Records
---
Amino acid sequence: MNERMTESKIVAVIESAIRAVNMDVELKQESTGVNMMYDFIKDEVIVDIDRVQKAWQELPESMPLETYLRVLTIHELGHAMDRKALLDSLDRTKEIILMKKQAAAEKRSTDLPLMTALIEEHETDIAFEETAWANAEILNSFFEIIDGVSFDKVKAHSLSTYRVAYEADLKIYNGFIHRQEELMSV
């Protein structure tokens, strides 16, 4: 999977996918460390050109870069379709970010309110991701942007990254709860 594309070709592929589903969402290039994301506040898709190519190479099964870009683009547009819900979640998201900033890193795994908020954040993120994928699937079935097999491969890989992080924090959280229960039963 060494097929490299120029920056302008990557932008052209993404913009063509946005136009193909008749959505009016701006594309912005930025070095974020995240391959592609939807900024629901500004209503724009952001692509990190270098990271998106690295992420494509990390796929468990190879596919053309253009295919990967099209799948990611309609997924991000799936988030755009859910923009109202994302905006509605903003106040709680800010609260959790503030809690994380205020918590000392070495004490995070023993701070029950913080761990509870982190689990909530993971569950919310996964729910938004699943909704975006469901919306992307609707877009794809209507506009036929990409083949279903490629779509499913990228979807499974993407969702697994969220679930792995969730499972790691859930393990810490459950261990903390278990220790609390042991202390209370003594």
Note: The CA atoms of residues 43 and 186 lie 53 Å apart.
---
Amino acid sequence: MRTDTTVRDVMHREFLGVSESDSLPEAAALLVDEETNCLVVVRGGEPVGRLESRDALDALLDATGDGSDDGPDPADLTVGDVMGPPLPAVAPDDSLAAVEERLVSEGADRVVAVDDGEAVGVVTDGDALAAGAPRTGAGAEGFGEEAAAGEPRPNETVLSTAAAADSDAERGAEATMDPEAAERAAAASRNEPAGTDGGADSTAGAPSGASTQGVCENCGALVPDLVTANGQAVCPNCREI
């Protein structure tokens, strides 16, 4: 959370307010229409109370369910008849940390910003939470960059560059433990350009009986030790036939 964030930075300058003389049923309808649970009661511009949805509902139910002629008519009830104490007040230049302390200490879900005795905005607990939550993080950015460095594979998984390096290291270690495998890999590296550059035959120019890697022209097998016999590059098995 930024330590320099103030009430002015996050408050709602347009808020729902009613006066003490307003009809309670109309105020209750406003609570329902705006899907809120609290209205600021103002006298002129000064906050003098709050009307919470549960208080309005209780008062209307009591008046409706009384059934006696002496009871109040729900239509005659006003906001001033059932309003509660004012919301906790803060100044527009107060820090957001001060707002959080007031919300917790007074068990409220919102505070009213007051400037020169007049209500100028409202800050809810949700506003304070949203303003204090981190927007980005170095950890999240690093994770995204690592994923982007990977390449899609046939099964739609992603292999990061670090994982690819580990795989190369493992293959190198296996070749070191197996001298014959290392020798075959070295021979393949030497012979590969001749077989791939311009489509040249890997056995072209090799003397009869010379060994090289490639595809047997007789059985089609890929072997590391092709030999030339009768003008064909064949594997040892086909040469003996």
Note: Confidence is low (pLDDT under 50) at residues 135-167, 173-177, 192-211.
---
Amino acid sequence: MKCNNCGCDNPDDAKYCRVCGNVLQLESFFEKLSELGFMPTTMIMLKGSLGATLLLYLLELLFVIGCLMVIGGIIAFLDQPVLSGNACSAFVALGGFVCSFVIAYVSFKYKLFDKSFPNRYVKSELLKEADYIQLDFVNDDDYTFIVKNKKFGVYSVRRYEIQLPAIYDWLSWKIEGQILNVQQNGRQYIMDIYGNELK
């Protein structure tokens, strides 16, 4: 292993350069990440979903209409002395409220903001969980590997959340998207994507 500081050749398992004392394994770890297709999380640009964006804009329009129905219904309810007019106004206000509530619920449940504007909403959360991410993230795979503090984890691309926290010394796929080869604390084993160790 060549030292990046002084250029001296060292044994492959050396932790420090025998000439200048430079840390060797730290550099080799980052070189290894680069070879495996990882890049710093700060450098990635996430691609938003056009379908989710169009749906979000439509729902926002309906949400505004629902809010206007609520406001109009309340104003009409307070303005009309006739009982039948009050009932109609109350119905309009209630309908607008229910419509707005359902639209807000759907938008947040299906993470339409995350899917439409991932660089604004997803990336800030991802930066807290991952220093490096494998480039598969950009290719719409279900899962990709992340690295935080030289430990490996798995990120769910479709759900925009950490599937397995970055606590493993090494991870690789045994069966893509389902079963993982794991190294942790000197042990080697296999586990499923939910973190359950398999025999």
Note: The beta strands are 38-40, 132-134, 143-148, 151-156, 161-168, 170-175, 179-184, 187-192, 197-198.
---
Amino acid sequence: MTTHGPVLPIWSCGGCDLPWPCPTRRRELRAEYADAPVSLALYLGAYLVQAAEDMPWAPAGALHRRFIGWTRQPPEVQQRSTATVPTERGRHEPHRAG
């Protein structure tokens, strides 16, 4: 059993006091639902609805990213979430004969 459960109604983590789901709980959930990503999204969607009721002042987009948005990203992208991903060279430039 994890110590990183939500503390309601403020939705902070009981284990580390970060916004829930914290990075530790996200890793745990990713491992628990490794073969069932849709089930993970449904599970977190139920928490999203509950959190939206508890925190009506929170922007819907921020809650979505916090509870569900991270589930579709590979774990390595989450760890470098502030980094930019380079585009393919020349992908958006017209081809030049050289």
Note: The helical segments are 23-32, 37-54, 60-67, 75-79.
